[in-house]
Specification:
alpha+beta; Immunoglobulin-like; eight-stranded mixed β-sheet; four-stranded antiparallel β-sheet; 23% helix
């Protein structure tokens, strides 16, 4: 009987929460469609293509929610019109991707920039949103070499001109990184010279897979002319995972074994969550016992219904 009462109480709490959420949704529907926001970016990649990326989210009082399965139209500005390139739908992260060849003869403005656009038409529930980004196509080539027992990473950068010819990229800062589970581990910063070439010493303590394979990514971010440019290559200069000593493992963000501070933080957070659940159940039991005591204290209380 006690367990049944607890279940009923929990069900009532969930029902009230669901009712409040339903009322909030109805009130939002009365005020009109929700406002959407789009973040649009273009990236020149190492496979001679330009990747268009649109992230669509919906604004709320509590924050923002990513919009899933939203059709996004990608286009490029021509001299007097806009040419539609194609459409793509947002995934579970609210992101829509679309690739176009970099060597297409797109119309450029007076400084040789190509202007791309992304648009979401909206509907009865969500407002329309659009984004625009301009860049000059470029390319990063990543290679590796060894000299006097020292390993180096080399980046060569070129830009694609309106006539279809490639010329060296001017002095630009490049970031060289290695992809990890949740972020990019920065290895070096390279400043390209006038020929578009730069080098940096490669670290010897980066952990790869079981064979020592590493993916090296060179990146130009938010440049006024070239936008985002990304190039990547693989090598076998990483430390093998199975070479990590099992007796005294290294605890770093980029190693298979998480740092102690991260494990302790996770344990504290989980303990707090489960502690709240246990506290709520204990309080429900105490409330139930208190109700029984008060019922027994009432004179002439008939307990026949309890036994039946």
């Amino acid at each position: 009987m006690q367990m049944q009462k607890i279940i009923i109480i929990l069900f009532a709490i969930a029902s009230v929460a669901g009712f409040k959420q339903s009322v909030a949704q109805k009130e939002a529907a009365k005020t009109g469609p929700s406002e959407t926001v789009m973040k649009f970016s273009c990236t020149s990649t190492s496979d001679d293509s330009i990747q268009l990326k649109a992230i669509v989210s919906v604004k709320h009082e509590e924050g923002a929610t990513l919009l899933v399965n939203a059709p996004i139209s990608f286009s490029v500005k021509m001299t007097e019109t806009v040419q539609v390139l194609g459409k793509a739908k947002t995934n579970e992260q609210g992101i829509a991707f679309f690739k176009v060849p970099a060597h297409n003869r797109f119309t450029r403005n007076e400084v040789q920039l190509i202007t791309f656009k992304a648009a979401y038409e909206g509907n009865d529930k969500f407002t329309a949103a659009e984004g625009e980004s301009a860049l000059k196509p470029a390319k990063l080539s990543v290679s590796f070499y060894e000299e006097d027992s020292v390993r180096y990473v080399k980046v060569e950068a070129t830009q694609l001109n309106a006539d279809g010819k490639e010329t060296p990229l001017g002095p630009v800062d490049i970031t060289v990184s290695v992809p990890r589970m949740f972020s990019m581990l920065k290895l070096a910063s390279i400043s390209l010279d006038s020929t578009g070439i730069g080098t940096a010493e490669f670290p010897t303590n980066i952990i790869g897979d079981s064979l020592g394979n590493l993916t090296i990514v060179a990146l130009v971010e938010d440049n006024e002319v070239y936008g985002n440019v990304q190039g990547q290559a693989t090598n076998t200069w990483g430390l093998h995972k199975h070479l990590i000593s099992p007796d005294r493992p290294s605890r770093e963000l980029w190693t298979p074994i998480a740092p102690l501070w991260m494990i302790i933080t996770l344990i504290i957070m989980l303990a707090g969550v489960w502690g709240h659940y246990i506290y709520a159940i204990v309080q429900l039991i105490l409330i139930n016992k208190s109700g029984k005591v008060k019922a027994e204290a009432i004179p002439g209380k008939n307990t026949k219904s309890i036994n039946s």
